[in-house]
Amino acid sequence: MTVASRLLHTRWLVRTPVALFRSGLGLLLGGRLLMLGHRGRTTGETRYAVLEVSARPDPRTWVVVAGLGPRSQWYRNVVADPRVLLWVGARRGVRGRSRTLAPADGARFLREYAAAHARSWEVLEPVVLEWAEPLATERGEDDWRRVVPVVELTVPAA
């Protein structure tokens, strides 16, 4: 397990930005991070996850990657219920929708991200490879990128 992966599995560390967003200080983290509010699949309670924004195709859309895989709780929750709340920049608790990109589109996005953000990809790729290569092999998938969930988050036009 890489150092980055160990850090991402440290609950208190990854939960710290949630407190910043909930206290209204999320804008200090810039546009690189957003807080996603989602409904728990079994409890129905609102849950929160702070995620890195991988792309911003337009002013109403953010793209995030489930870097720890399809077993990530936030990802499983948005698949079950695509209605979300978003905190990003000055926006606080804006209603939106999530949509998982098709495997081919997700793989293309990851290739483009790696080309455009080589330094970030150097850190992210080993974390993703830890689980994505074995999962791709298990599923008989030739390209491990096709098993990585890439999610588009969109808010309605104002």
Question: How would you describe this protein?
Answer:
The protein is α+β, with helices and mostly antiparallel strands and 158 residues long. 39% of the residues lie in helices and 28% in strands. The chain is built from 5 helices and 7 strands. The protein has helices spanning 3-8, 11-22, 73-80, 103-116, 118-139; strands at 33-39, 46-52, 55-58, 61-65, 83-88, 91-100, 150-154. The chain has a 7-stranded antiparallel β-sheet. β5 and β6 form a beta hairpin. α4 (103-116) packs antiparallel against α5 (118-139). It is globular, with a radius of gyration of 15 Å. Mean pLDDT is 88; it is low at 3-9.
Can you give me a brief rundown of this structure?
With 158 residues, this protein is α+β, with helices and mostly antiparallel strands. Helices cover 39% and strands 28% of the residues. The protein has helices at 3-8, 11-22, 73-80, 103-116, 118-139, and strands at 33-39, 46-52, 55-58, 61-65, 83-88, 91-100, 150-154.
